[in-house]
């Protein structure tokens, strides 16, 4: 299980049950494990600017997926597509690359999936990722925000919500 530790820099660590966390990648965030458990996609300024990279969980190798600025990667459920947000464009398009299965990571050229996310969605949330892709890879969930004169966010807390569950019907 990867996680991002935020300190002077953001670093990705891997942790397994019963083991101590081990450093996976320095100065990186937003890790996403491929469905087959072989690869981790993440955001890192490894090329000098923030881009999306893929590395095997075990072994060597590192591939840059986003040719320009990119971040917040997420895999399709079958592992054959990798989605990310083009953070170099003011429109912040959602991009995808087709992934070729094999022992060495291989991906096709990026293509635009959704042209403009910046008008309605928060897309700069590093080191957290605030969106996800449905298993079929055809639907996406984003955290939406409103900027119409709101001066403060409102938080609603539900107390004792478990009392309303109908646990006997299961």
- Give the biggest sheet: 5 strands, antiparallel
Shape: globular
Beta fraction of the residues? 35-45%
Q: Tell me roughly what share of residues is in helical segments.
A: under 10%
Mean pLDDT, nearest integer?
Answer: 82
Number of strands: 14
Unreliable segments of 5+ consecutive residues: none
DSSP helical segment count: 0
Derived structural class: mainly beta
CATH C-level label? Mainly Beta
Question: CATH superfamily name?
Answer: TolB, C-terminal domain
Q: Compute the CA-based radius of gyration.
A: 18 Å
Determine the N-to-C terminus distance: 30 Å
CATH topology: Neuraminidase
CATH architecture: 6 Propeller
> What is the H-and-E element order?
EEEEEEEEEEEEEE
Q: Supply the number of structural domains.
A: 1
Strand-helix topology:
Layout: E1 2-6, E2 10-14, E3 22-25, E4 29-33, E5 39-44, E6 51-56, E7 63-64, E8 71-75, E9 81-85, E10 94-100, E11 106-107, E12 111-114, E13 131-133, E14 140-142
Antiparallel strand pairs: 1-2, 2-3, 4-5, 5-6, 6-7, 8-9, 9-10, 10-11, 10-12, 13-14
Describe the structure.
This protein is an all-beta fold. It has one domain (2-147): TolB, C-terminal domain (Neuraminidase). The protein has no helices and 14 strands. It has strands at 2-6, 10-14, 22-25, 29-33, 39-44, 51-56, 63-64, 71-75, 81-85, 94-100, 106-107, 111-114, 131-133, 140-142. Strands 8, 9, 10, 11 and 12 form a 5-stranded antiparallel sheet that branches. Strand 6 and strand 7 form a beta hairpin. The mean pLDDT is 82.
């Amino acid at each position: 299980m990867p996680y991002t530790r935020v300190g002077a820099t953001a670093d990705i660590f891997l942790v397994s049950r019963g083991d101590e966390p081990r450093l996976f990648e320095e100065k990186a965030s937003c890790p996403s494990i491929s469905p087959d458990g072989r690869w981790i996609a993440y955001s890192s300024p490894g090329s000098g600017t923030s881009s999306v990279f893929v590395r095997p969980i075990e072994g060597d190798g590192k591939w840059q997926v986003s040719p320009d600025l990119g971040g917040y990667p997420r895999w399709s459920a079958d592992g054959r597509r990798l989605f990310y947000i083009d953070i170099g464009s003011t429109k912040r398009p959602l991009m995808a690359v087709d992934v070729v299965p094999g022992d060495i990571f291989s991906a096709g050229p990026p293509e635009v999936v959704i042209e403009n996310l910046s008008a309605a969605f928060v897309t700069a949330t590093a080191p957290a990722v605030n969106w996800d892709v449905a298993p079929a890879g055809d639907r996406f969930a984003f955290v939406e925000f409103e900027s119409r004169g709101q001066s403060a966010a409102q938080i609603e807390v539900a107390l004792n919500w478990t009392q309303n569950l109908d646990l006997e019907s299961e």
